[in-house]
Structure formats: C-alpha cells, structure tokens
Request: fold
Amino acid sequence: MQDVIKTVEQWLNDCVLGLSLCPYAKAPIADGKVRIVCCAKKQVKKSVSAEDQPLTEVDFLSSLEQEIEHLLETPEIETTLLAGPGLFEDFLDFNDFTGYLEKQLRDQEIDEHLQIATFHPGYLFAGEAQHDQSNYTNRAPYPIVQLLRTESVAAAVESGETLEIPQRNIERLRGLDPGKLGELFPWAKL
Reply:
C-alpha cells in the first residue's frame, strides 16, 4: 500500500503540481490537508492472505464509504484521493462506476458536502482520440476517486478562474514533447 501512496504522491508532485494542472492543489498539499488512501480489502478469508485476494468493487465502495465518513468528520482535511490499484482496468467500466457513485452521492444528499473528481491511467474525454494528449489532464497511475469539499469547489468557481483551466491544461499537454509526456506519465495506457 505504501508503494501505491508514494506513486500517487509522485504523480501529484510531478504532474498535477509540476504542470500546474490544478492551481488549487498547491496550498492543501503544502499544508498537509490532502489525504491519500489505497483501497483496502473489506474481508479476507482466514485461509488466504490479503495479498492473495484481488480487490473488488465492493472493497472500493467500502473504502470510499469510510473515506466519506472520515472527511465529513475531519474538517481539517481538504480532500481525499482514494486509489484502487488492480481495479477497473477498462476506463469505460470505471466511468460507469463513477456515474453510479455520483448518483449515490445525490441520492444520499452527500453531494451537498462532497463532490468527486476522477482519474484513470486510460482516461478518455468524450470526443477525443485515445492518443490525444488532452486526456492526460485526468490520467493517473491508478483509478482514483477524489473527494472534494463542495464549499471549496464553489469558492474556486466564484473566483472566476476555473473556466479557463481545462483549455489551458489541454494546450499545455498538447504542447509537451511526446518523450517528456512519456517520462511524466509512464503508466498511462495508450
């Protein structure tokens, strides 16, 4: 699990901060207000070790529920990134799953407090080619669901700068040399 967390930290430092993909990430990261968690097994059979059992969507949902509760009870944490290594190999499956998560947040009225952002090694924006460099704005080493405080998102939107971020990121990533892109995102699925 520590290897997963270190890889996510490196992605945050090298890609998210290094390429300035999210100008709102720098302060919470510097202040230690970002929680990075690796999905844990919900249940392990007594006869088999946890390492021998693959993670499942049920494990991910259980970990996500715990993180939602933790974030709602811990106001000093700004955001949580939940990584699911070995899960959701196919981006479209992950995308469907996150659609389900968003519906659950709405149905349980958690969306009044928390929103999600998603990242995946094979992230693909609708209408973009698989190899288009713009997809790298949301490519991460593992499938990741980020829990964000709704009030923080609203404050960012009110600042008036958020609408420019996606286009700026697309231009920045499309302007990167493919070799540099490969160095920064060695785990990305093409």
In short: Helices lie at 2-17, 26-30, 57-73, 91-107, 150-158, 165-174, 178-184. The longest helix spans residues 57-73.
